[in-house]
Amino acid sequence: MTAELDETDTVLEVDGLTVDIRTPAGTVRAVDAVSFTARRGETLALLGESGCGKSMTARAAVGLLEPVADVTSGAVRVDGTDLIAADERTRRALAGPGISIVFQDALTALNPVYPVGTQLAEPFRIHRGLSRKAAREEAIALMARVGIPEPETRVDSYPHQFSGGMRQRLLIAMAVALSPTVLLADEPTTALDVTVQAQIMNLLKDLREEHRMAVVLITHDLALAAEEADRVVIMYAGNVVETGPVDEVFANPRHPYSKGLLDSVPEHVRPGEQLRSIAGSPPELAAIPAGCVYQDRCPLVRDRCRASRPPLVATGAGRAAACFYSSEVSGA
Q1: Which residues make Cβ contacts (< 8 Å) with residue 227, sequence separation at least 6?
Q2: pLDDT score for 266
Q3: What is the DSSP letter of 95?
Q4: What percent of the chain has pLDDT above 90?
Q5: 19: Cβ–Cβ under 8 A, 6 or more apart, which residues?
Q6: Pick among 3.30.750.24, 1.50.10.20, 3.30.230.70, 3.40.50.300: CATH of 9-108+179-331
Q7: What is the pTM of this model?
Q8: What is the rounded CA–CA span in Å between residue 116 and residue 139?
């Protein structure tokens, strides 16, 4: 957890971000007016089930949406510069020093036909104009910084010659090469064993503190969010349903979905009790209900929830929830 931060530390502002996807059956909304901020030196977790819009939000922020997806409204500001409205030249200039991303599958994110040293050196040549030799030296230093053994001899190796954990370290090295203001980490420990997961998260934490980056950790792992994050943004069906300091949200959730997620953690169940789960499934993107997006699975649902969508409103200092009956959630 980081030290207390104030609003002047804000370096990332996602404001009303909306993403639509064109499908054979029509256009569907994958991200619906999502807003949140991230501050320098903190870790913000985007949390929710698969398909809730977490990764789509991150890809929209860095301009890596698939051709069938479009940002239809909203802004993504890094140190005041709106990446959505910016021209291509501005976006390219900020890709690396301003905002960077770590993907969950390092083997597909790294280019298999180039040595890792060549790939690590590229940002230094493009953004800093270094010579090939100088950029190679920076690549070696970067490999050493992220814990790659014998970087001088492995700089000419190819991605397939590294283990999964080492490839993930290389991907992180590429992402932090230019000391970005904001680092998006999209499921950075997926498919890694527990020991390697801990090593990767410790590396990210060290780099965050070293560069005073804002880290946006995209995950569906509640334990990981509790351990690593300072604040949490919980998403459901492309919408933000709750935000706040992670320890407060986890101790006293104010949205039924947040409570359902936390109640489903096995360690909360006593021996002999039945494992809890959230009944039903998230709605299809083409069939998002008109009212509250969680209404079909919510134990507190009423006619008002079906008639109109609850706005995200304050539920305490630094906290907000999109629920008409947030005060009743603890007893649900």
Answers
A1: 201
A2: 81
A3: B
A4: 83
A5: 29, 30, 31, 53, 56, 57, 60, 65, 69, 70, 71, 72, 238
A6: 3.40.50.300
A7: 0.92
A8: 9
